[in-house]
Structures are given as C-alpha cells and as structure tokens.
Amino acid sequence: MNRRAFFRVSAAAAGGVLVSMYFDLPPLAQEKAAITYPPDAFVHVRPDGRIVITINRCELGQGVATALSMILADEMDAAWSQVVAELAPAADIYKDPVYGFQNTGGSATIANSFRQYRELGARTRAMLIATAADRWHVSPADCRAATSIVHGPAGQLARYGELADDAARRAIPAKVALKTASEFRIIGKPTRRLDSRAKCDGSQKFGIDLQLPGMLIAVVARPPVFGGRVKAFDDHEARAVPGIRDVFEIPLVHGSGIAVVADRFWTAKQARDRLKIDWDLSGIEHADSSELSKRYKDLARTAGKVAVNTGDATALDRVAMENRIVAEYEFPYLAHTPMEPLNATVRFDGDRAEAWVGSQFPTYDRAAVADVLALKPEQVDFHIEFAGGGFGRRQSFDSNVSREAAAIAKRMRGTPVKLIWTREDDVQGGYYRPMFVHRVEAGIGDDGLPVAWRHVVVGQSYVIGSPFESFLVKNGVDFDAVTGTADMPYSVPNVNITVHHPKVNVPASQWRSIGSTHNAFVVETLIDELATHANADPIAYRLKLLKPEAQRLRAALALLEQKSGWRNNLPPGHALGIACNQYQGTAVATAAEVSVENKRARIHRVTVALHCGLAVNPLSIESQFQGGIIFGLTQIVAKGAITLKNGRVEQRNFDGFAPPYIGDAPVTIDVHIVPSDEAPTGAGEPPVPVIAPAAVNALFRLTGTRYRTLPLVAAL
Amino acid sequence: MKAFHLRVNGERKSVTVDPSTPLLWVLREELHMTGTKYGCGIGACGACAVHLGGLATRSCLVPVSLIGDRDVVTIEAMSHDAVGRIVQNAWVDKDVVQCGYCQSGQIMSVVALLKSNRAPSDTNIEESLGGNLCRCGTYVRIREAVKSAATKLA
Questions:
Q1: Peptide linkage before A434 cis (omega within 30 of 0)
Q2: What ipTM does this complex have?
Q3: What does residue A324 show for φ and ψ, rounded to 5 degrees?
Q4: Taking CA A312 as the corner, what is the angle to CA A307 and CA A315, rounded to the nearest 5 degrees?
Q5: Which of A285, A343, A691, B12 has its CA 20 to 30 A from that of A613?
Q6: CB contact under 8 A, B101 and A659
Q7: Domain finish residue from A144, A178, A199
Q8: 0.90 cut: is pTM over it?
C-alpha cells in the first residue's frame, strides 16, 4: 500500500462517519460503530518488501508497537523480519475502536485492538492474494500466502512488495475470515521487541530529543502552591543571561507562571533561577498532608456515598466485637516520575499548528492545543512521539503540559518551541495518585470466613469535573477510586462500601493501575488477616472465598500454588506473602519471599501467575510483569511518598522521592501464564497492585505487625 | 561564553558555551548527541552516564570547564566498542528494554563495570548500577544481561 492511498482513504474517513464521533457525545457513552478500518491507513508495504505497520497507540515501553505489529503481521502472513512499526499521528481513524477517542491507557490496547489489527491484517492479505490471483488469472481460493509471498496453484510466486501498489487500488473486502488459534504463527510466540537495538545504541528519539530548525527551548516557573498566580515579576537578571529570547507570563491550568524561552535548555534554566517573582497565594487552599490525614480519618468514621451495598448493611452490628477486625489504612500522594521528563513541542503558524508530544491522550491533547490557539483540532498536526515511560502521567484529563506548550507557542508565533519540565517541576508539579484513607470493619463468622464487610474510602476524585465524569462517576462515586474494592472477587454476604471525595487543592491523576494501588492493598492484607485468624493457608483460604465467577483468579492462584514450591522451604528469617487481584480482566496471583535486612524489607524472590486470556507476546508479558512488580514497590520503599506542608510539596527530585532502584528489587521474578485461547486482556497495569500487599503480608509473619500506613517509613 | 575543545568518541569537537554548562547539555544541545539522557540533573538517576577519562560519570554534574583533556565516550560509541557491542547484544538477546530512556546510562555503567571486572557478582552489579534508576523496573533482566555479557567476555 502506498502513501497516496493512505491519504485518499484518510480523507474519505475524515469526511465520513468518524468525524461525527468527535466530542459531540460524552466519551465512552458512544455506541460502538461498526467500522471497517482501511488497511491503507495501517499498513504500508514498501517496494523493497519492508512492511510498515502503523500503531494507533503511544509506545511508552509497554511493548504495544511490537504486539500490535505481531497481530497484524500474523493475519497478513507477513515475514516478521521485514516488519517495521511506526506511531500514528492524532487522527480519527486511530481512535480506540471501543472508547471512541485516541489514547493509551487502561491496559486496553490489546483488549480493544486485537480484533481490529487482526481484521486489518486479514484484509491486507486478502487484497494481496486477490491481486496476485488476477495477475495469474486464477481463483484467489487456489492461492495461499506465507512469509510475505503469495503462492499460486501452478507454483507461481509473487512477493508482497511487487503486489502492493495494485493491491492498494482494490476495494477493501467487507468480510474476511480470521485465523483459528492453531493457525497463528507469530501471535503467542515469545517475540523480542522491535525497538530494542535503537534503545541500546542511543539512536531512539524520544519527544525530548526532537530537533527542529530554529527550535527554541522553554522552561516555566510555577507557583509554590498549586493555583498561585503571578502578582509581579522582575526579569531583569534573567534577561541578562546570553541566549534568552523572551520571558512572559502564561496561564497554567492551576494559576499562572512565567515562561522563559531561550536557545538552549541550560540557558533557560539559569535564567529561570534568576527570576524574582511575587506570587499571589491568597484565596487558595494550602494543602497539608498531616492535616489531610486527620481530616480523612475523621471522614472515614462516617458513611459516604454508596458504592456497593449488598445483603444487610447492619449485619456487622450483630457480630461480637472479638470477632471483628477494625483496620485503618493510609496512602500518600504518589508521583509517576517517568524517566523522560515531561515535554511538548508546538509551533503556531496563525491558521495552523504542529505539535510533537509523547502523549497517552492525543485526542484531548490535540484539542487542548487547538483550544489555546483558537484553532479547530483538525488545524493541528499532532505527532505522537516515543515516550520514556508514562504510567498515566502523560494522560492528564486537563492536558496541562500540552496547554502550557501551546500558550508559549502562541506568543512565539512561527517558531517551534520545546517546553521541558525539569525533574523538580515533575516531582513538585502535581497530578499525583491521590492520597487515600480507608477504614474497614470485617465481621468473622463461625467458619472463619467473613460475614460482613463495612468499608469507607476517602480520597480525591480527579474524574469529577473532567470530561469523563458522566462515564466514570455514578451516584457521586468515582469508579477509579474504588477499583479493586467495589469489584472485590470474594464472596462476602453483607458488603457496604461507601466513599467520600473531599476537594483538595492538589492536582491528581491516574497512576498505573489506578484505584487498585490502594484498594487491592486493603483487600489483600485484610484477607490475609482473616486467613491468619482462621489459621488457614493463604492460597487455600482465597480459593475457598473466591466468587464462583472469579475463574481467572482461581486459575491464577492454582498455577501459583503449583509454581511456588519454594514457599514450603524458606530459609530461617525469610517469610512468605501472598496476594492476588484482577484488573481490567487480567487476574494476577503472587508469592513473595521477604526478609528484614538493615531494618528494611528485602524482597528476594517473587513468583507470579497470571491469566490474561490469549498471551499475544509471552515475552513482553513476562517483562511487563517483572517491571510492573518493581513499579509496585514504589508504594513501599521508604521514600515512596509525596507529602505537602503548608501547600508546598516537600520533595524536589529523586533524592526526596526515590522510586525503587536495583538494590530494592528482587533478584528473581518468575512469571507463569495460564494457557488460554480466551480474548486477550492487558498486561501493563495488572502486575502493579499485588506486590505491596504480598510484601506486607510476609512482613507480618516476620515482625507480628500489620503495616497499614504506606510507605514503610519507620524502620522495621 | 567561552570556547572549549573536547575529544568525544575519539573526535575533536569545539563548542562555545557558558563554562557552567554541564557536559550533558553540551552533548545534547551543542553536539546533537541525544543518546545521553537528562533524567534528574542532580546525579540521582544515572540516565546521563558517560565515560570520562575511562570512568563512569554523571554528565549532568560535570561542567564543561572541568573536563580538560579527558576523553568523553558516550552511548553512540558503544556499537564500535568491543565490550559495548557485547553488552548491547546481551541487552537485545534478553529483551531488557521497555521505554528505553534509562538504558543508555545503564549500558554505560555496565560497560565501565565489565571493563574493570569481567565476573561481577550480584553485589558488584548492585554497587555499579545502584544509582541507575529504571522506572519501568527492568532490573531483573538487566542482571541477567550483565551476567550473560560477562560470560561472553570470559
């Protein structure tokens, strides 16, 4: 397929049904339109045989560029060695086929685009076969394809590269047969990443590496308290730094700031350090973690808005006090800190603009750039760059980074400007996983199983007031805040879960595995307490308590039991912790071997068993689970917290907010996948929630203490 | 502004910059060698690791004025370095990278380690890579790849 065909089809699509999906309905509420995706927009077979597959997601490290290419290449019968992946720009055709907007989040890529990319591959293959069949005057049914070659009935051969131009002129077949699982040759095979070599020799370009002719660099001085505004500023010394091009105030989503634009980053940063800014901090809440903790704990003693109420809400009151566990949990704000600092490049040309962003949220980021520049989204050419990690931070609901870059570009008309957030800007810049307090009262029956579960969750909702409120908020309860609790997999006859969403002046956002980061911790440590109380094996207790429909979790726990034989032969001073959780359809069970070393938890070994339906790329799933377990350790490492005092964030950089380093990580994480042909679900977020509860459950066995406040700040 | 004459990956380079400019930003913005990454600017993440006079060094902390005549070697030279190539191949073979942003720094630290110690223990690996942050958490595969590269060098 050639680029001309691509533009023709894209133009047709832009004028058709897709354009009407743009913003005129609340996101996610749209009916799934039956769209035939044009292969031309997704596959480009070059004359040299190279097959360029367009990826409708951002590659953040999670391996989607490889996995989606595998899916399409398999149905296309392409030679894998000839496949190249390219990231799509923002365009209607690249919207998530289920969500109706373009994004990379919710571990949804494989779940939502599996069928889409298979159909694209199958259609491309059918068009190539039909082209060859026409050339040979034979029936397509008598031809077959393998490794980028069409074979005819009389031994004819035609390479895909020779057929592509003619194939692109054919009508797209409406219906194509997809392979059965036994016919897959690439899907299901452990496959190395397509982007490895470029990421090992320094040649992979990320958004921050973008170089354009005449490009300038911007940094922004932000208010010390969220929402603060510039009252006055003195830029005399800043402008004296050689290489400074401009200094000016810009609006921020929360308050205002001063942008410094220069030839170079170092120059801009030095000039920013020389600014004298008088901030107006009046009339804004100065959030304070210890005050929030008190306020949240008070709120947790009162019922909130009802998320779940099954059975009899008063059943707990009939359980004797000695048969109740009452537990209070506290979780801090958490920063995402992807390794590539946040950045966005925008050039404004008056009636058009061009943007380059490692965006998890192109539909909204593009619309935000357009909004700032008083353009329509289609007047913004929005390129999606490879991103050095995201973890949700590149998917803020208010597109704050893109908005800032657009505001700077507006002033610097005609010049591309790359906005770079320093690491300090990132650590102190908000959009954190919100702080949460939970209070749970569990009543235990005569059989040792829970009979009543009363649970209050307290924490900010970043969904309320966002474009996603109508979809994710019901009866005042933010679904993101109760993920992992409201959908608890255990059978408890009487459950009452209520929620308070206090408003706090700290911008918050989605953090890899959202609500499960705290909810799974509460559920899985409390289940462990119940199992201990019942003197039961933690795996057997969970299997007994799982709801009948929790089939994937059941299978994952059974596989874990089989693969973690080491747990019965632990060295002295080491203990076992178990936890499990299901997130976005993927079930995860884990066993952690933990000791206390230098008064800190040391995790020696982790075994993970998971059920994600069909495993598209088992190698990538293994990597995601190893990495996701380590990402989850962010929650328990000593410096794994963002705290505020009098409105100011107390951490500045990786010295104060320190995610896990290699010395904090287990040496071994072995990953086992439940074999399955079911529809595939995601692997990016599901591993994250289980490790903190598993580790803390093991620590209880070593110290006799239940750790319910994260991170584990105090020495053990 | 002042002129500085550097030797980077064996080539002579001249730049005119403020003497306080860290080597990191000279590489990235003056020489357009973007394989060396900015991660924190305070020497706490290792994404900017290069070899300076043969030693693994945080390029975000070294002002260009302090480099003198020491050789600067970056990730861009590793494909042509005997140990560097073996480490890169081990990284690809073990499918180490995820987002990849920290991996230039990881590889530069590992090459420096293996040039001084061809049979590193887990403790040696933790010491040499202890300050190289990977947010994707590729540490398990990094350990495997280091050991695999060490075997090839033995």
A1: no
A2: 0.99
A3: -115, 145
A4: 115
A5: A691
A6: no
A7: A199
A8: yes
